[in-house]
Write a structure and sequence with these properties.
By secondary structure, the chain is α+β, with helices and mostly antiparallel strands. The chain contains eight helices and nine strands.
């Protein structure tokens, strides 16, 4: 960016303008003191040629305590920085303020700089290709409203970044070097290309089929243990009854041999008859229990619903014989 030193004559003219009273706004005493300090420091930096630091201080001084003289000095500072459009605007504001305050001296100084800078202004003209709905143009990140399109606009010299965007279109951008006194630089915004369609999301794999509900256990499966138990008890009881029956028969034969005609010679032989009777009674009891168990198992089996999952009890009857007894033993798994 081009930087020039403000001439002594311009500073002298400005100093004369600053000798007049400030604008009518009434800031606080502290704000006035701060503004004066910033003004003095900014003027000192301008005298040293350090415009980059001087201009912000002068702008802040004007914000705290507005004054027509400060406006003129701000314009001179921006002009020295090479910001011709900004300086031209500063002097325009100063000119209006001077006329409002009836300050002919400031009015003359401001008007002189306005007339001097106007033919030197660098301008840009934004031209947007028609037929682009929803398009938005930006310069250095700031929106350029549609009303500004096609009009040569004053701009500070330097590199400018222009962008354009619209729904469903690819964004466009271009850097433009805006240089040269009194030139108008065109910026052509083309038709924006269509944006590439968004890739389709990958197909979602269908969820695995739900496992079939496990059928509720049927009544027959719940009856199987009871069928097996009742049947087992019946078989075992019947076997025990057989054993006691065989033992009773054997004892009874021994008693008949020892007691011919029913007369026993001694108490031991008499006891054989009693043992035979006792075992016969036990045989009868176990036969009754066995019959009841087998009958119960049969009823449960016959009344249970039919099912393919009906289990089979692994049961078997094994004969059991002793010296003075015999019977059957039920073995297996329920």
């Amino acid at each position: 960016m081009r930087t020039t030193r403000v001439g002594a004559g311009a500073l002298l003219t400005l100093a004369m303008a600053l000798g007049a009273p400030r604008a009518s706004a009434q800031p606080t005493g502290e704000a006035v003191a701060t503004a004066q300090a910033l003004f003095d420091d900014g003027k000192r930096l301008m005298d040293a040629g350090n415009y980059e630091r001087a201009c912000p201080k002068l702008v802040e001084s004007q914000r705290l305590d507005p004054a027509g003289g400060t406006l003129l000095l701000i314009g001179l500072c921006h002009e020295a920085q090479g910001k011709t459009a900004t300086a031209w605007a500063d002097f325009g504001v100063a000119l209006g303020q001077a006329r409002k305050d009836n300050r002919a001296d400031r009015e003359a100084a401001a008007l002189e700089h306005v007339q001097k800078l106007e033919p030197k202004l660098t301008r840009v003209r934004v031209v947007v290709a028609p037929g682009q709905n929803g398009i938005e143009v930006l310069r250095n990140g700031v929106v350029v409203n549609a009303a500004q399109w096609g009009t040569p606009l004053p701009i500070d010299p330097g590199t400018q970044t222009f962008e354009a965007r619209a729904p469903g279109k690819r964004p466009w951008s271009q850097k433009v070097d805006v240089v040269g006194e009194g030139v108008t630089v065109p910026v052509q915004v083309p038709l924006l290309a269509d944006a590439e369609p968004s890739p389709s999301p990958p197909p979602v794999a269908p969820p695995p089929p739900a496992a079939p509900d496990k059928p509720a256990p049927q009544e027959s499966s719940s009856r199987l243990p009871w069928i097996a138990l009742a049947g087992g008890v019946g078989v075992v009881a019947a076997g025990v009854g057989v054993g006691f029956g065989l033992s009773a028969t054997s004892k009874w034969k021994d008693a008949e041999r020892a007691c011919p005609g029913g007369l026993c010679p001694n108490a031991a032989d008499t006891e054989l008859g009693k043992q035979a009777g006792t075992r016969a009674d036990l045989s009868t009891v176990f036969f009754i229990i066995g019959g009841a168990g087998l009958a119960t198992a049969g009823v449960l089996w016959l009344t249970a619903p039919s099912t393919q999952d009906r289990g089979v009890a692994a049961l078997r009857v094994v004969p059991s014989l002793g010296r003075d007894r015999g019977g059957l033993v039920l073995r297996g798994v329920l």
